Amino acid sequence: MLKQKARMVARIVYASDLALTTVAFFTAFFLRDLLLPRLAPGQFPTGLFPLTDYLKIYPLVLIIWSVLLFTYDSYHSHRTVPLTREALTTVRVVISGNVILATLAYLLPLRQLSRSWFVLFGVLAATLLVAEKIGVRALARWVRSKGLNYRTVLIVGTGRRATDIARMIVGHKYWGYKILGFVSDGHHLSNGWTRYRIFGSVPDLRRILETSEIPEPIDEVVFAVTRKKLDEMKQIFLLCEELGIRTRVAMNIFHNRVARVELEELEGVPFLTFTTTPSNETQLAAKRALDIAISLMLLVLTGPVIAIAALAIRLSSPGSIVFRQKRIGLNGRSFTLYKFRTMIEDAHARREEVAHLNAMNGPVFKAKDDPRVTPVGRWLRRFSLDELPQLWNVLKGDMSLVGPRPPIPEEVASYHRWHRRRLSMKPGLTCLWQISGRNEIADFDRWMQLDLQYIDNWSPSLDLKILLRTIPAVLSGKGAS
Known about the structure:
By secondary structure, this protein is of the alpha/beta class.
């Protein structure tokens, strides 16, 4: 029943989100077409942008916003999510949507759309959607202050783990949880929590749950006991299941440093999963879809540049146009990486001759003035044009647009153990290292730390941020060798 209510609320909020987006869409048009021309007629002439042009992209707006809102998990229960995080997620949805919309409007025959409209629409949509989130939170708090829409919790355990959970619940009143009391597991309850009643000990749990000893209904039971005690409670879990009481278990059995803990179910068998990489399938599917769409678009748009670069390589030096090299990808899988050849044909055989020029510590070779690089190759490298064939790797699925750069096998063989975690995510065309100075970073460990920072903090908005910052980094040629 609670799940049905949650789904109903999610549908209402989703419909409200689309309605407010629609209001922002048309309000932005009327502000641009009616108000701005009156305030600054010289800067904002009227009549240039008919409503019919905007109506063409209105269905796109609804589709893009729907995909992004669900991609960012906007309709899961936000009982335990701070308002600031929810508001920030909403702003990210609007910014991402506006960037995608502007790109599509440019590619489609809609280039006459007003740039000021995009700004107005983004500001209005973000303002209305954030205001909606604030309003929903305020309404929920008011309802809970009237004794409604809160969930009661019985905590099994009286040790430090139990009081830590109780402190967390009390410190986040907007979660809408009310602690009924504790069930003792033999530990002494610290003084700060003596205001809560202890309803007996663990052997009394069956009686406590089956009788009306507790004055209020129990919505959830949280087990904050040792692993040994958990092993003794199989019948209590089954009883909670029979009574329809939600059960939570504090799972800090293993002291992992980075990995996130997730509970999965395969054919009815529950698995406790420890993962250091992103696991939101919707977001990862969206990442792959964007990889395909953007790499296809870039291959088409840069077609003339690719042709000119290929011709310049062919005419300037003997050898192949495209350089193929074995690289290591996701979880150690090998693949063939494609690049424009920027060095002389026997460059690999002459590597020992230039070993003294290596500016990077660790297993990677990076030389600023490598004599093996051809004049055309140096120009291609300066603006990262030699990487364009890797769009084919992205399209094939060997790589992503954003991710740690793929290493060669010799480098991986020299990795320290903690370096190898960078292989747990699909390699990319650009990354944090790429936009942080590239070869200006001479410390190999610092490069690896940037890659792990990306993996640990990955989100669609981080990918978008890196892609946008890659443009000035490439155009400036900063850090290119």
